[in-house]
Amino acid sequence: MLSVEGLEAGYGRARVLFGISVTVEAGRLVCVMGRNGVGKTTLLNTIMGVLPATGGSVTFDGKDVTRLRPDERVRLGMGYVPQGHETFPQLSVMGNLMVTLEASAHRDQGAVEEALEVFPRLKPLLKRPAGFLSGGQQQQLAMARALVTRPKLLILDEPTEGIQPSIIMEIEEAIERLHATGLAMLLVEQYLDLALRLADGFVILDAGRVAHSGAAEELHGEHVHRLLAV
Amino acid sequence: MEGVLNQLPIGLSIGAVLLLIALGLTFTFGQMGVINMAHGEFIMAGAYTTYLLQGVGFLVALPAAFVVAGLMGLVLEWVLIRRFYGRPLDTLLLTWGVSLILQQLARDLFGAPNVQVLSPEWLRGGIGILPYNRLFIMALAVLSVVAIWAYQHRTAQGRRMRAVMQNRRLAATSGINTGRVDRLTFFIGSGLAGVAGVALTLIGPVGPALGTYYIVDAFLVVVAGGLGRLRGAVLAALGLGLLNSYAEFWTNASLAKVMVFVVIIGFLQLRPQGLFVLRTRALT
Question: What residues of chain B lie within 8 A of the CB of A131, using their CB?
C-alpha cells in the first residue's frame, strides 16, 4: 500500500530525516514512535508532500508519488489528519466536510453520512462554526474530514494529543473500528500502551533514523523502552 | 446648506469606488496577505477598457473590464507572485515594479495626457441632488458586495476559497488544489479593480496614473476595516469616502488628505486590529 524508501527531508539547511524506510501493507496499522523532535511529524509531512523530499521515494498503491502535490496524493487515496486538531475555523462543521468532499476524487455525498456514523457526536453540531468546537470535537471533525475522501490509507499525527480523556476513548475506538474494516493506517502516537493495543507493526525513530521496527509483539523489552523514554 | 447636501452623493460615490477597489484587495491582501502595488493599475486597465469600448456600449464595458483586469491579475499571480509567497517585502517591491511598467505601457499605448470617456446618455441628469452616474456607482458597489458575499458563502468554489484562506496547508492536505484557488482569487480580486475602473470613468478623466490616486486610500480601507472582513470594508470605505469629500469641501484637497491620514492613524492607534476582527478558538 505505502512504501517509503530512504526518505530524506529537512527545513532549509537543517536536515531532519536521514533515509527513513517504512512500509504499510494493505489493511495494516503501523505506529510511528519516538521521543519529541526525532522527526515523526516531519516524516508524515514529507510522505504527504507538505515538505519536499530531498532524497528517497514514496510509493503509494504501486505509484511513485514522491513529486506529487499534497492534493494529488489525497485524490489518489491518502488521507491525512495533521497534528493539533486543525479545522477550517470559520466554516461550519458541515462546510468543513463538504469542502473536502467537493475536492475528493469520488464526490459521493454518501461519504459524509459514513464519516458521521463513525463520529456520531458531530451530528448535532453540523451548523456550528468549527472554530467554536472543543479540542476533542475538532479532532473528531478532522478525522471525519479525512474519511470523507474515502482514503485507502489514513495517516494520523498524534490524534489523542491534548484531548480530554473521555474523547480519547472514542477516538481510540474509532481507530479500532476503521482498522477492523480493513483500512490501512499510519499512526504517530506518543502513548506506548495505546500503540500496543492498536498497532500491527511499529517503527521507532531516533534522530531522523529508524532505530527499530517490526511486528507489534516485538514491542516489548528493555531497548524499546529505552528508545521511548523521555 | 445646499452645498453640504450636494457633497453627500459625491462622498458616497467616492466611498463606493473605494469599496470596489478595497473589495478586490480584501481578496488578495486581506485574505492572501499579498501587498499588490499593481492593483491600482488594474483599475486603470478597467478604465482604458471602457475607453476603448465607448462605441460598443457601457454595459459591455463592465464584464469586459472585469475580465481584462482579472486576467492581468491572474497572469501576475501565476508568473511572479506565487514564487514569492511568505516574502511580503519582496512582493511589495516586485509588484511596485510591475505597477511602474504598466503605467509606462499605458503611456505608450494611449499617450500621457488624460482621455475622456463620454458617459452614456442614460446616465446623464439626475433626481434632485442625486446625479444618475453617482447613483449608478453606488448601485454597482452594492451589487458587487452582494455578489461577492453570495459567491463566498453560497457556492462550492467560494467555500474552497475560504478554506484556503483560513488554513492553506490543511486545505492542500484535504485535497484542494491551492494553486488553482490562488489564481482564481487573484482573478476575482483584480477583476473587481477593473470594475472600479469602469465606475471611475463616469466621474473623471482616465490617465495612466489613475490607479495611484486611489490605491493608498483603498489599502487604508482594508486595514481600517479589519483584514479580509467584508462588513468592515463597507463601513470603512463609506466613512473614508465621506470624510474625504467633506474635508475637501470645507478646506482644500491637500489639507483634506492630511486630515484623513490623521484620522486613520488615530483610529488605528485605538483599534489596531481594524473595525471587525475574527474571534475563534482556533485562531491563537
Answer: 280-283
Neighboring chain B residues of A48 at a CB cutoff of 8 Å:
173
> What's the grid cell of residue A127?
451548523
Please classify residue A119 by burial: count the beta carbons closer than 10 Å to its beta carbon, then call 0-12 exposed, 13-18 middle and 19+ buried. Answer: buried
What ranges in A83-164 are assigned the alpha helix state H?
A: 93-103, 110-118, 135-148
CA–CA distance, A49 with A45 (Å, rounded to integer): 6
Which of B154, B162, B170 is the best residue to mutate to test the A interface, defined by the most A CB atoms within 10 Å of its own CB?
A: B170
DSSP assignment of B200-260 = HHTTS-B-TTHHHHHHHHHHHHHHHH-TT-HHHHHHHHHHHHHHHHHHHHHS-HHHHHHHH
Burial letters B165-203, b for 16+ CB under 10 A, else e? bbbbebbbbbbbbbeebbbbbbbbbbbbbbbbbbbbbbe
Tell me how close the Cα of A100 comes to any Cα of chain B, in angstroms: 6
When CB atoms are compared, the residue of B166, B174, B178 closest to A145 is: B174
Domains of chain B: 2-270 (1.10.3470)
In a mutational test of the B interface, the residue from A75, A99, A107 whose CB has the highest number of chain B CBs within 10 Å is: A99
* Cell matching residue A227: 528508545
Q: Which of A53, A82, A86, A85 is closest to A67 using CA atoms?
A: A53
> Could you say which residues of chain B have pLDDT below 70?
1, 30-31, 228, 277-284
Angstrom distance (rounded) from CA A74 to CA B219: 37
What gap in Å lies between CA A142 and CA B198, rounded to an integer? 44
Q: Chain B within 8 Å of A48 (Cβ-Cβ)?
A: yes
Helix, strand, or coil here: B10? helix
Q: Using one digit for the tens of pLDDT, what is the confidence trace for A40-99?
A: 999 999 999 999 999 999 999 999 999 999 999 999 999 999 999 999 999 999 999 999
What distance in Å separates residue A211's CA from the closest CA in chain B? 28
Amino acid at A121: R
Chain B residues touching A130 at Cβ < 8 A:
282
What CATH class does A2-86+150-228 carry? alpha beta
Contact A17, A212 (CB under 8 A): no
Partner-chain contact B283 A89, CB within 8 Å: yes
